[in-house]
Amino acid sequence: MNRFEKHPKKTLAVVLLLIFTVILMGVEWTLSSFHEELGINKSSERTFARFMRLREWHPNSTKIYSAPKARFNDPKGPVDETYELRIDEAGFIWPSINHDKPDAEIVFLGGSTTESLYIRPKMRFPYLVGRQVEQATNLKINSINAGVSPIRPGSRRAAR
Question: What pTM does this model have?
Fold first, then answer.
């Protein structure tokens, strides 16, 4: 007695599985070999998952930065020796939240020019824009500064 006679269902299942596997391999080979003729775009480059690393300030922190020497040659006027960067409980640069129940909020995202590290806090442009919009509209405006420079003062990259 042969295997098919002993176990007809199992033998048929194995044979069909083998036939199905051979057919799939043939289809894969055909598509791989003739993908251009069939109008299939096959990327030869590997693709990688993309992500964005967010730089954020630590909430409830304060940093004191000394102005760079080049700033002391500013012809527009005096430069402070040090600048304070105070971060509120939400992780935004102070002053940001002026009103508990604002009519609108303006959020500034960006790098060093938004962060305005070497500017007095109430002279940073996100804060000033909020005040100007308040005056022009008679609305309560919170202007939130979420700027973070890609290069931290004192880091090796900043020293270059």
Answer: 0.60
